[in-house]
## 1
Amino acid sequence: MSLYCGIACRKKSFWCYRLLSTYVTKTRYLFELKEDDDACKTAQQTGAFYLFHSLAPLLQKSEQRYQAPQYSLLELERLLAKFGQDTQRIEDSVLIGCSKQHEAWFALDLGLNSSSSLNASLQKAEMEIELKGSFTDLRKALFQLNTKDASLLTTALLRWHDAHQFCSRSGQPTKKNVAGSKRVCPSSKIIYYPQMAPVVITLVSDGTRCLLARQSSFPKGMYSALAGFCDIGESLEEAVRREVAEEVGLELERLKYSASQHWSFPNSSLMIACHASVKPGQTEIQVNLKELEAAGWFSHDEVATALRRNNPYTQQQNGTFWLPPKLAIAHQLIKEWVEKPSCSTLPA
Ligand SMILES: NC(=O)c1ccc[n+]([C@@H]2O[C@H](COP(=O)([O-])OP(=O)(O)OC[C@H]3O[C@@H](n4cnc5c(N)ncnc54)[C@H](O)[C@@H]3O)[C@@H](O)[C@H]2O)c1
Ligand SMILES: [Mg+2]
């Protein structure tokens, strides 16, 4: 393994290596796998593969808990052989992380039409029987897994490769590197990197209440914070102010960054979450019905109660509103405000 400890000391020595923390060696190892196709191929030999079918991750259920099983390269080759597939399909896998011991983790979709193999997608039902699990809709899967497994199962990279198989300049097929961190057009030499769209999400407060809204496409009864894609040329602050003005007709007073999250739906977004406040007396909402179905101010008690009983699968019948599930950054933002309502009015 060729690891070095930094710009000041590029020696490949045990002494140098020992100076680096586990986290740093892990990130350097992943960097190496993204840059070096041979190193990544070698890593596949001892690596672990997570399986997907048309972007739905394979989950197995044991004792009321769901887990995403891992397969070795050998197991994967045997599986493909059993279904009459050539092992070239493994070239479609993408690097998604590694363990502290540098076991590399890959994601492979058996349902998408393969770019490296002539064979089309594998039969889902037959695979599920063979693998003793089920390919589960990603949204559902994310809410059934623990946070660590859920973050591994992001399908954004698989989806991006599936949708970027041709060069937009030459029209020729592009080729992914082994790790899947880029695609190159052999004809135009253009390098394509995975893209994501910045999205702002804002919980607006008037000091005692917070503003929640819903789109008609949301599950029945669910309310969330205001969200919107950033326009080209905008700063995050400008995007937050514009989205709030556009969607509910309010002008913001203070704005405070909270946290961020990668979000796989509908494609690949970087959600940037903020708390914001409006001027006292300037709280009258004018809902933009082209964007939202409804919006309103909710008291601290109402929101705290909704957080306590939050379960999307049981809340839809009795007419009460419910909030996005724990894994969504909207939930974290709302929880933060419930725990500390002054967070939106404190200086940034
Ligand atoms: N993780 C969370 O907690 C959370 C919570 C709420 C919303 N979200 C996500 O935030 C995203 C944006 O929210 P929104 O729908 O209110 O956005 P929005 O208010 O900007 O409205 C969506 C519209 O913006 C336009 N648009 C501009 N740039 C776009 C792009 N790059 N991709 C797609 N559409 C684009 C389209 O016309 C689209 O219909 C959604 O995809 C949603 O999944 C995540
Ligand atoms: Mg919006």
## 2
Amino acid sequence: MPIHIENGKVRLDHPKGSSAEVLLYGATVISWKTIVDGSEPTEHLFLSKKAVLDGSRAVRGGIPLVFPCFGPPSRPEHSKMVQHGFARTETWKLAKQSDDGETLEVHLTLDPNPSIESVYDKPFSLTYVVAITEKTMVNELRVTNPHPSDTLEFQTLLHTYFRAPMEDVRVEPLQGKPYFDKTTMTERVENRELVDVKTFTDSVYGNAEKKSKFTWPGGGIEIESFNYPDLVVWNPQEEVASKMTDMEEYGWHHFLCVEPASVRDFVKVTPGGTWSGKQIVYTIPGRSH
Ligand SMILES: O=P(O)(O)OC[C@H]1O[C@H](O)[C@H](O)[C@@H](O)[C@@H]1O
């Protein structure tokens, strides 16, 4: 079976060798593999060896979903929530699956339940689409506002932990972009053509390009995003990661987070409307790692 569900995890196995694994817990994609150089499938996501997958805390790695607030809550309506909201710590439902021979696709849904309602009283409906082809992965979040008269406002982000060598990786194109540097809490403008993460990096770029990429000698990933005006680049380095109980030793050497986002401002969805944000991720042709 190309798509099957087992022990709270959805597996997609493409006939051309690519695969993905999505936990119902947080709708967290924890693995995405493709065949890059004609041999064994290569894992493109970082998942900490100490990540907790039992539903007791957000997963340290893969693609946790941030909704409806980014970072510590900044608005009264989010004040009962923990950092990054509840979407990454709720159990989603597998609502739909399809396989047309080229694309394997699953739809996971999340709607208000008593645990969410204890911290958030707005009506909403979320659908998260994960699809893989031989070479690509698509992650699309759809947010519907079922309220008859109130606008729904939220922040959201695909917190993607990519497996890459921290020392060598460079992100572009970010030159000239405004960004909020969370390491110093200052608003700045990026002057580097190629951005590295060799020091503690927590940068929230605005006005992001539709296509971003990061490369290192022998590897690279391109991200095409739709409807995400911002891009967060993060590597916690030892100073922050060593305080995380779920980060494996030296884990920060093996990933960077490049996160299509709508967080510098709040997305506004009119009554009855639906917002959707999407990333398409693929390895850069001719490169392998
Ligand atoms: O530790 P978490 O709650 O998963 O957050 C991990 C990180 O997420 C984002 O990248 C934020 O910009 C960081 O400030 C935060 O530290």
